[in-house]
Protein backbone atom coordinates (compact mmCIF):
# COMPACT_ATOMS: atom_id res chain seq x y z
CA UNK A 1 0.00 0.00 0.00
CA UNK A 2 1.08 3.62 -0.43
CA UNK A 3 0.00 7.07 0.70
CA UNK A 4 -2.86 7.16 -1.76
CA UNK A 5 -4.56 3.97 -0.63
CA UNK A 6 -8.21 4.79 -0.01
CA UNK A 7 -9.27 1.49 1.52
CA UNK A 8 -11.90 1.27 -1.23
CA UNK A 9 -11.94 -1.07 -4.20
CA UNK A 10 -13.34 -0.69 -7.68
CA UNK A 11 -16.50 -2.73 -8.36
CA UNK A 12 -15.70 -5.69 -10.60
CA UNK A 13 -17.37 -4.31 -13.70
CA UNK A 14 -17.47 -6.32 -16.90
CA UNK A 15 -14.53 -4.46 -18.44
CA UNK A 16 -12.26 -5.35 -15.49
CA UNK A 17 -12.67 -9.01 -16.43
CA UNK A 18 -11.68 -8.65 -20.07
CA UNK A 19 -9.15 -11.27 -21.18
CA UNK A 20 -7.33 -8.86 -23.46
CA UNK A 21 -6.82 -6.41 -20.58
CA UNK A 22 -5.49 -9.26 -18.45
CA UNK A 23 -2.98 -10.00 -21.22
CA UNK A 24 -1.95 -6.33 -21.26
CA UNK A 25 -1.41 -6.36 -17.50
CA UNK A 26 0.56 -9.60 -17.69
CA UNK A 27 2.82 -8.08 -20.36
CA UNK A 28 3.58 -4.93 -18.34
CA UNK A 29 3.41 -6.38 -14.84
CA UNK A 30 0.50 -5.76 -12.44
CA UNK A 31 2.49 -3.58 -10.06
CA UNK A 32 3.70 -1.27 -12.83
CA UNK A 33 0.30 -0.37 -14.27
CA UNK A 34 -2.94 1.20 -12.99
CA UNK A 35 -6.33 1.87 -14.55
CA UNK A 36 -6.95 5.59 -14.38
CA UNK A 37 -9.35 8.37 -15.29
CA UNK A 38 -12.75 7.94 -16.88
CA UNK A 39 -13.00 4.15 -16.62
CA UNK A 40 -12.43 4.27 -12.86
CA UNK A 41 -14.68 7.31 -12.34
CA UNK A 42 -17.55 5.99 -14.46
CA UNK A 43 -17.40 2.51 -12.91
CA UNK A 44 -17.73 4.03 -9.45
CA UNK A 45 -20.79 5.95 -10.68
CA UNK A 46 -22.31 2.85 -12.25
CA UNK A 47 -22.02 4.26 -15.77
CA UNK A 48 -21.09 2.28 -18.86
CA UNK A 49 -17.40 2.39 -19.73
CA UNK A 50 -16.38 2.83 -23.35
CA UNK A 51 -12.69 3.74 -23.09
CA UNK A 52 -10.04 2.34 -20.77
CA UNK A 53 -6.82 4.22 -20.03
CA UNK A 54 -3.81 3.03 -18.13
CA UNK A 55 -0.83 4.67 -16.44
CA UNK A 56 2.50 2.87 -16.15
CA UNK A 57 5.92 3.15 -14.58
CA UNK A 58 7.50 1.97 -17.83
CA UNK A 59 8.88 4.57 -20.20
CA UNK A 60 7.37 4.49 -23.72
CA UNK A 61 10.20 2.49 -25.28
CA UNK A 62 9.88 -0.18 -22.61
CA UNK A 63 6.11 -0.27 -23.02
CA UNK A 64 6.47 -0.80 -26.78
CA UNK A 65 9.03 -3.56 -26.26
CA UNK A 66 7.06 -5.41 -23.57
CA UNK A 67 3.82 -5.30 -25.52
CA UNK A 68 5.61 -6.43 -28.66
CA UNK A 69 7.16 -9.39 -26.82
CA UNK A 70 3.67 -10.38 -25.66
CA UNK A 71 2.33 -10.26 -29.23
CA UNK A 72 0.22 -7.16 -28.56
CA UNK A 73 0.21 -4.59 -31.35
CA UNK A 74 1.41 -1.28 -29.96
CA UNK A 75 1.25 2.09 -31.72
CA UNK A 76 3.44 5.04 -30.64
CA UNK A 77 0.52 7.51 -30.91
CA UNK A 78 1.92 10.14 -28.54
CA UNK A 79 5.28 8.79 -27.63
CA UNK A 80 6.85 12.21 -26.96
CA UNK A 81 4.28 12.68 -24.22
CA UNK A 82 4.56 9.10 -23.04
CA UNK A 83 1.51 7.55 -24.70
CA UNK A 84 1.47 4.19 -26.44
CA UNK A 85 -1.80 2.76 -27.77
CA UNK A 86 -2.36 -0.97 -27.33
CA UNK A 87 -4.63 -2.31 -30.08
CA UNK A 88 -6.63 -4.98 -28.25
CA UNK A 89 -9.55 -7.10 -29.46
CA UNK A 90 -11.89 -5.35 -27.03
CA UNK A 91 -10.79 -1.86 -28.05
CA UNK A 92 -7.75 0.37 -27.97
CA UNK A 93 -6.15 1.24 -24.64
CA UNK A 94 -3.90 4.26 -24.18
CA UNK A 95 -0.98 3.39 -21.91
CA UNK A 96 0.81 6.51 -20.68
CA UNK A 97 4.04 6.76 -18.70
CA UNK A 98 3.80 8.61 -15.38
CA UNK A 99 4.59 12.29 -15.98
CA UNK A 100 5.26 15.59 -14.30
CA UNK A 101 4.97 19.04 -15.84
CA UNK A 102 8.22 20.84 -16.57
CA UNK A 103 6.64 23.98 -18.05
CA UNK A 104 3.21 25.13 -19.23
CA UNK A 105 1.97 28.17 -21.16
CA UNK A 106 -1.79 27.73 -20.98
CA UNK A 107 -1.98 25.91 -24.31
CA UNK A 108 0.52 23.08 -24.10
CA UNK A 109 2.79 21.45 -21.55
CA UNK A 110 6.36 20.21 -21.60
CA UNK A 111 6.53 17.04 -19.53
CA UNK A 112 9.14 14.77 -18.05
CA UNK A 113 8.64 11.13 -17.19
CA UNK A 114 8.18 10.32 -13.52
CA UNK A 115 8.17 7.31 -11.23
CA UNK A 116 5.79 8.54 -8.53
CA UNK A 117 2.07 7.79 -8.84
CA UNK A 118 1.07 10.79 -6.73
CA UNK A 119 3.18 13.12 -8.86
CA UNK A 120 1.37 11.87 -11.96
CA UNK A 121 -2.01 12.33 -10.27
CA UNK A 122 -1.11 15.87 -9.20
CA UNK A 123 -0.83 17.07 -12.82
CA UNK A 124 -4.36 15.95 -13.72
CA UNK A 125 -7.21 18.44 -13.82
CA UNK A 126 -9.95 17.33 -11.41
CA UNK A 127 -9.94 15.16 -8.32
CA UNK A 128 -12.54 12.82 -9.81
CA UNK A 129 -10.20 12.15 -12.73
CA UNK A 130 -7.21 11.33 -10.51
CA UNK A 131 -8.40 7.98 -9.17
CA UNK A 132 -6.14 4.99 -9.91
CA UNK A 133 -7.10 1.32 -9.60
CA UNK A 134 -4.74 -1.64 -9.27
CA UNK A 135 -5.53 -4.06 -12.11
CA UNK A 136 -5.43 -7.18 -9.92
CA UNK A 137 -6.70 -6.10 -6.49
CA UNK A 138 -8.86 -3.21 -7.82
CA UNK A 139 -7.71 -1.16 -4.80
CA UNK A 140 -8.18 2.54 -5.45
CA UNK A 141 -5.51 5.16 -4.86
CA UNK A 142 -6.94 8.60 -4.10
CA UNK A 143 -4.54 11.37 -3.06
CA UNK A 144 -6.79 14.40 -3.47
CA UNK A 145 -10.25 13.52 -2.17
CA UNK A 146 -11.68 12.41 -5.49
CA UNK A 147 -13.87 9.71 -3.95
CA UNK A 148 -15.53 12.20 -1.59
CA UNK A 149 -16.03 14.66 -4.46
CA UNK A 150 -17.53 11.92 -6.59
CA UNK A 151 -19.95 11.02 -3.80
CA UNK A 152 -20.93 14.69 -3.47
CA UNK A 153 -21.08 15.13 -7.27
CA UNK A 154 -18.61 17.99 -6.96
CA UNK A 155 -16.14 18.91 -9.74
CA UNK A 156 -13.08 20.31 -8.02
CA UNK A 157 -9.67 21.20 -9.37
CA UNK A 158 -6.63 19.50 -7.90
CA UNK A 159 -4.75 22.10 -5.89
CA UNK A 160 -5.20 25.78 -6.67
CA UNK A 161 -7.88 26.25 -9.33
CA UNK A 162 -6.31 29.38 -10.82
CA UNK A 163 -2.95 27.69 -11.14
CA UNK A 164 -4.45 24.65 -12.85
CA UNK A 165 -6.29 26.87 -15.34
CA UNK A 166 -3.14 28.91 -15.95
CA UNK A 167 -1.43 25.65 -16.95
CA UNK A 168 -4.13 24.84 -19.53
CA UNK A 169 -6.83 27.39 -20.30
CA UNK A 170 -9.05 24.71 -21.86
CA UNK A 171 -9.69 23.45 -18.34
CA UNK A 172 -12.29 26.20 -17.98
CA UNK A 173 -14.47 24.56 -20.62
CA UNK A 174 -13.61 21.11 -19.32
CA UNK A 175 -14.80 22.21 -15.88
CA UNK A 176 -18.20 23.21 -17.23
CA UNK A 177 -18.46 20.04 -19.31
CA UNK A 178 -17.73 17.85 -16.29
CA UNK A 179 -20.02 19.96 -14.14
CA UNK A 180 -22.85 19.43 -16.64
CA UNK A 181 -22.23 15.70 -16.71
CA UNK A 182 -21.41 14.87 -13.10
CA UNK A 183 -21.90 17.95 -10.98
CA UNK A 184 -24.53 18.75 -8.38
CA UNK A 185 -22.67 20.62 -5.64
CA UNK A 186 -20.89 23.72 -6.95
CA UNK A 187 -17.28 24.38 -6.00
CA UNK A 188 -16.94 28.10 -5.24
CA UNK A 189 -13.21 28.25 -5.93
CA UNK A 190 -13.62 26.61 -9.33
CA UNK A 191 -16.52 28.90 -10.27
CA UNK A 192 -14.62 32.05 -9.35
CA UNK A 193 -11.42 30.94 -11.07
CA UNK A 194 -13.24 30.14 -14.32
CA UNK A 195 -14.99 33.51 -14.31
CA UNK A 196 -11.80 35.42 -13.52
CA UNK A 197 -9.69 33.66 -16.16
CA UNK A 198 -12.34 33.38 -18.88
CA UNK A 199 -10.53 35.91 -21.15
CA UNK A 200 -7.60 33.46 -21.44
CA UNK A 201 -9.81 31.24 -23.61
CA UNK A 202 -9.18 33.67 -26.47
CA UNK A 203 -5.66 32.27 -26.82
CA UNK A 204 -6.77 28.71 -27.53
CA UNK A 205 -7.10 27.12 -30.94
CA UNK A 206 -10.66 27.34 -32.23
CA UNK A 207 -10.69 23.58 -32.90
CA UNK A 208 -10.11 22.82 -29.21
CA UNK A 209 -12.81 25.29 -28.17
CA UNK A 210 -15.28 23.84 -30.69
CA UNK A 211 -14.59 20.29 -29.54
CA UNK A 212 -15.26 21.12 -25.89
CA UNK A 213 -18.30 23.26 -26.65
CA UNK A 214 -19.94 20.62 -28.86
CA UNK A 215 -19.14 17.86 -26.36
CA UNK A 216 -20.83 19.90 -23.63
CA UNK A 217 -23.87 20.58 -25.82
CA UNK A 218 -24.21 16.86 -26.59
CA UNK A 219 -24.94 16.07 -22.93
CA UNK A 220 -28.54 15.32 -21.92
CA UNK A 221 -29.25 18.63 -20.16
CA UNK A 222 -26.55 21.26 -20.74
CA UNK A 223 -28.84 24.32 -20.41
CA UNK A 224 -28.33 25.01 -16.66
CA UNK A 225 -24.55 24.87 -17.12
CA UNK A 226 -24.64 27.03 -20.25
CA UNK A 227 -26.76 29.54 -18.31
CA UNK A 228 -24.06 29.74 -15.65
CA UNK A 229 -21.40 30.13 -18.34
CA UNK A 230 -23.40 33.07 -19.63
CA UNK A 231 -23.82 34.59 -16.19
CA UNK A 232 -20.14 34.20 -15.29
CA UNK A 233 -18.91 35.73 -18.55
CA UNK A 234 -17.45 32.53 -20.01
CA UNK A 235 -19.89 31.96 -22.88
CA UNK A 236 -19.47 35.51 -24.25
CA UNK A 237 -15.76 34.81 -24.71
CA UNK A 238 -16.18 31.66 -26.80
CA UNK A 239 -19.54 32.48 -28.39
CA UNK A 240 -20.14 36.24 -28.28
CA UNK A 241 -22.99 35.86 -30.77
CA UNK A 242 -25.14 34.16 -28.13
CA UNK A 243 -27.73 36.66 -26.97
CA UNK A 244 -29.83 37.18 -23.86
CA UNK A 245 -32.49 34.71 -25.03
CA UNK A 246 -30.05 32.02 -26.15
CA UNK A 247 -30.23 29.88 -23.04
CA UNK A 248 -34.04 29.92 -23.12
CA UNK A 249 -33.90 28.78 -26.77
CA UNK A 250 -31.54 25.96 -25.80
CA UNK A 251 -33.88 24.89 -23.00
CA UNK A 252 -36.85 24.83 -25.38
CA UNK A 253 -34.94 22.80 -27.93
CA UNK A 254 -33.75 20.25 -25.35
CA UNK A 255 -37.34 19.94 -24.18
CA UNK A 256 -38.57 19.35 -27.74
CA UNK A 257 -35.90 16.71 -28.38
CA UNK A 258 -36.94 14.87 -25.22
CA UNK A 259 -40.68 15.26 -25.87
CA UNK A 260 -40.44 13.95 -29.42
CA UNK A 261 -37.89 11.23 -28.71
CA UNK A 262 -35.13 12.71 -30.85
CA UNK A 263 -31.52 12.17 -29.80
CA UNK A 264 -29.71 15.29 -28.58
CA UNK A 265 -27.61 16.90 -31.29
CA UNK A 266 -24.82 19.34 -30.35
CA UNK A 267 -24.82 21.18 -33.68
CA UNK A 268 -28.58 21.75 -33.48
CA UNK A 269 -28.12 23.03 -29.94
CA UNK A 270 -25.35 25.35 -31.09
CA UNK A 271 -27.81 26.72 -33.64
CA UNK A 272 -30.28 27.37 -30.83
CA UNK A 273 -27.71 29.58 -29.10
CA UNK A 274 -27.30 31.72 -32.23
CA UNK A 275 -29.67 34.25 -33.76
CA UNK A 276 -31.76 33.05 -36.71
CA UNK A 277 -29.50 34.76 -39.21
CA UNK A 278 -27.24 32.93 -41.72
CA UNK A 279 -24.99 36.00 -41.87
CA UNK A 280 -24.10 35.32 -38.23
CA UNK A 281 -23.93 31.52 -38.46
CA UNK A 282 -21.52 31.55 -41.40
CA UNK A 283 -18.63 33.32 -39.61
CA UNK A 284 -19.26 31.33 -36.43
CA UNK A 285 -18.87 28.09 -38.37
CA UNK A 286 -15.68 29.40 -39.96
CA UNK A 287 -14.25 30.59 -36.65
CA UNK A 288 -14.91 27.26 -34.95
CA UNK A 289 -13.37 25.40 -37.91
CA UNK A 290 -16.48 23.29 -38.42
CA UNK A 291 -16.50 20.78 -41.27
CA UNK A 292 -18.25 21.64 -44.52
CA UNK A 293 -21.22 19.43 -43.59
CA UNK A 294 -21.49 21.01 -40.14
CA UNK A 295 -21.24 24.47 -41.62
CA UNK A 296 -24.04 23.70 -44.10
CA UNK A 297 -26.31 22.49 -41.31
CA UNK A 298 -25.61 25.44 -39.03
CA UNK A 299 -26.32 27.95 -41.78
CA UNK A 300 -29.49 26.08 -42.81
CA UNK A 301 -30.71 26.12 -39.21
CA UNK A 302 -29.99 29.84 -38.99
CA UNK A 303 -32.26 30.44 -41.99
CA UNK A 304 -35.21 29.06 -40.03
CA UNK A 305 -38.59 30.73 -39.78
CA UNK A 306 -41.20 30.54 -36.99
CA UNK A 307 -43.43 28.37 -39.22
CA UNK A 308 -41.24 25.74 -40.94
CA UNK A 309 -43.98 24.40 -43.20
CA UNK A 310 -44.53 20.83 -44.37
CA UNK A 311 -41.99 18.50 -42.77
CA UNK A 312 -41.50 16.21 -45.75
CA UNK A 313 -41.23 19.06 -48.24
CA UNK A 314 -38.62 20.61 -45.95
CA UNK A 315 -36.63 17.36 -45.79
CA UNK A 316 -36.79 16.98 -49.58
CA UNK A 317 -35.52 20.52 -50.16
CA UNK A 318 -32.90 20.71 -47.40
CA UNK A 319 -32.06 17.17 -46.26
CA UNK A 320 -33.28 15.12 -43.31
CA UNK A 321 -30.92 16.52 -40.65
CA UNK A 322 -31.52 20.09 -41.75
CA UNK A 323 -35.29 19.53 -41.67
CA UNK A 324 -35.13 17.99 -38.19
CA UNK A 325 -33.14 21.00 -37.00
CA UNK A 326 -35.67 23.52 -38.30
CA UNK A 327 -38.70 21.57 -37.08
CA UNK A 328 -37.36 21.07 -33.56
CA UNK A 329 -36.11 24.64 -33.26
CA UNK A 330 -39.63 25.79 -34.20
CA UNK A 331 -41.33 23.31 -31.86
CA UNK A 332 -42.97 21.54 -34.82
CA UNK A 333 -43.67 17.80 -35.11
CA UNK A 334 -41.02 15.55 -36.64
CA UNK A 335 -43.29 12.47 -36.74
CA UNK A 336 -43.95 12.82 -40.51
CA UNK A 337 -40.27 12.02 -41.12
CA UNK A 338 -40.23 8.87 -38.99
CA UNK A 339 -39.69 5.85 -41.23
CA UNK A 340 -40.01 7.99 -44.36
CA UNK A 341 -37.31 7.88 -47.02
CA UNK A 342 -36.77 10.99 -49.07
CA UNK A 343 -37.96 10.10 -52.62
CA UNK A 344 -36.48 11.08 -55.96
CA UNK A 345 -38.49 12.80 -58.66
CA UNK A 346 -39.60 9.97 -61.01
CA UNK A 347 -38.89 12.04 -64.09
CA UNK A 348 -35.77 12.71 -66.17
CA UNK A 349 -34.86 15.57 -68.43
CA UNK A 350 -34.60 13.20 -71.37
CA UNK A 351 -38.29 12.43 -71.06
CA UNK A 352 -39.07 16.12 -71.43
CA UNK A 353 -36.84 16.33 -74.52
CA UNK A 354 -38.59 13.25 -75.96
CA UNK A 355 -41.83 15.21 -75.85
CA UNK A 356 -40.48 17.85 -78.21
CA UNK A 357 -38.76 20.37 -75.91
CA UNK A 358 -35.31 21.44 -77.11
CA UNK A 359 -32.57 20.51 -74.67
CA UNK A 360 -31.49 23.52 -72.63
CA UNK A 361 -32.78 25.92 -69.97
CA UNK A 362 -36.42 25.33 -70.87
CA UNK A 363 -36.12 21.65 -69.95
CA UNK A 364 -34.70 22.55 -66.53
CA UNK A 365 -37.46 25.10 -66.00
CA UNK A 366 -40.19 22.58 -66.83
CA UNK A 367 -38.62 19.99 -64.52
CA UNK A 368 -38.58 22.50 -61.66
CA UNK A 369 -42.23 23.41 -62.19
CA UNK A 370 -43.30 19.77 -62.31
CA UNK A 371 -41.18 19.06 -59.24
CA UNK A 372 -42.81 21.91 -57.31
CA UNK A 373 -46.28 20.48 -57.99
CA UNK A 374 -45.06 16.95 -57.24
CA UNK A 375 -43.78 18.10 -53.83
CA UNK A 376 -46.95 20.11 -53.13
CA UNK A 377 -49.07 17.03 -53.85
CA UNK A 378 -47.10 14.90 -51.40
CA UNK A 379 -44.71 13.06 -53.75
CA UNK A 380 -47.17 11.01 -55.87
CA UNK A 381 -46.02 8.08 -58.00
CA UNK A 382 -44.76 8.05 -61.57
CA UNK A 383 -48.19 7.89 -63.23
CA UNK A 384 -49.32 11.11 -61.56
CA UNK A 385 -45.91 12.71 -62.22
CA UNK A 386 -46.28 12.04 -65.95
CA UNK A 387 -49.76 13.55 -65.78
CA UNK A 388 -48.29 16.66 -64.17
CA UNK A 389 -45.75 16.85 -67.00
CA UNK A 390 -48.52 16.53 -69.61
CA UNK A 391 -50.48 19.31 -67.92
CA UNK A 392 -47.43 21.55 -67.92
CA UNK A 393 -46.66 20.88 -71.59
CA UNK A 394 -50.27 21.48 -72.53
CA UNK A 395 -49.87 25.03 -71.25
Describe the structure.
With 395 residues, the chain is an alpha+beta fold. Among the domains are: 1-152, Beta Polymerase, domain 2 (2-Layer Sandwich); 349-394, no CATH class. It has 20 helices and ten strands. β5 and β6 (91-97) form a beta hairpin. The longest helix is centred in the last third of the chain and has 16 residues, at 361-376. It is elongated, with a radius of gyration of 27 Å. The model has no long low-confidence stretch (mean pLDDT 94).
Provide keyphrases for this structure.
single chain; 395 residues; alpha+beta; Beta Polymerase, domain 2; eight-stranded mixed sheet; two-stranded antiparallel ribbon; 48% helix; 13% strand; elongated
| Fraction of helical residues | 40-55%
**Terminal residue distance:** 91 Å
Summed up, the helix count is 20
Largest sheet geometry: 8 strands, mixed
Shape: elongated
CATH structural architecture of the domain at 1-152: 2-Layer Sandwich
* CATH hierarchy, class of the domain at 1-152: Alpha Beta
Order of helices and strands: EHEHEHEEEEEHEEHHHHHHHHHHHHHHHH
| Average pLDDT level | 94
Strand content: 5-15%
CATH homologous superfamily caption of the domain at 1-152? Beta Polymerase, domain 2
Low-confidence stretches: none
How many β-strand stretches? 10
- SSE class: alpha+beta
What is the CATH topology classification name of the domain at 1-152?
Answer: Beta Polymerase, domain 2
Q: Gyration radius, to the nearest Å? A: 27 Å
Q: Output the strand order for the largest sheet.
A: 1-10-9-2-3-6-5-4
